[in-house]
Specification:
Number of helices: 0
Oligomer: single chain
Shape: globular
Strand content: over 45%
Order of helices and strands: EEEEEEEEEEEEE
Strand order of the largest sheet: 3-4-5-6
Largest sheet: 4 strands, antiparallel
Structural class: mainly beta
């Protein structure tokens, strides 16, 4: 229900994020470090700007089933969500250096190709570290490379 952020050097709790979801499935930190995305089994994605609030800056609900994985690209301004509905949603996510400007989040593409097996769809997704490629694994026993 909560995401707790600790300072390991001081061994102290820094803040507790409140995504407003029942079951958290995955989490990823933006490469610049000040933004976090949280995926949940109740179909919701929460984007946190750690400089703003402990409540989500934006909550997105585009999947019809549980979100299994969320992943930022380390090189490109993209992130993806993998879901049990058999789809991967790819978003453009621009984080600005100016603290007065809010992050830009734009849905780009819905990738479909994995079959749903036993109510499970896409189990994991991962961006390639250099190329603009996305890899995904599904409950159908396949790994797909999206270019």
């Amino acid at each position: 229900r909560y995401v707790r952020i600790y300072n390991l050097m001081q061994q102290a709790l820094v803040k507790t994020l409140q995504p407003g979801v029942k079951w958290i499935s995955s989490i990823d930190v933006h490469p610049q470090g000040d933004n976090v995305i949280v995926g949940s089994y109740d179909k919701k994605l929460s984007w946190f700007d750690l400089d703003l609030s402990v409540k989500p800056y934006r909550s997105i609900r585009y999947h019809s089933q549980a979100i299994r994985q969320v992943q930022f690209s380390r090189k490109f301004p993209l992130f993806a969500t993998a879901s049990d509905d058999g789809s991967i949603q790819v978003y453009h996510s621009m984080v600005y250096q100016d603290l007065n400007q809010n992050p830009l989040i734009v849905p780009l593409k819905i990738l479909r190709g994995h079959e749903i097996r036993n109510s499970l769809g896409v189990l994991d997704c991962l961006f390639h570290p250099i190329q603009p490629w996305l890899l995904s694994s599904g409950a159908d026993g396949t790994i797909r490379l999206w270019t």
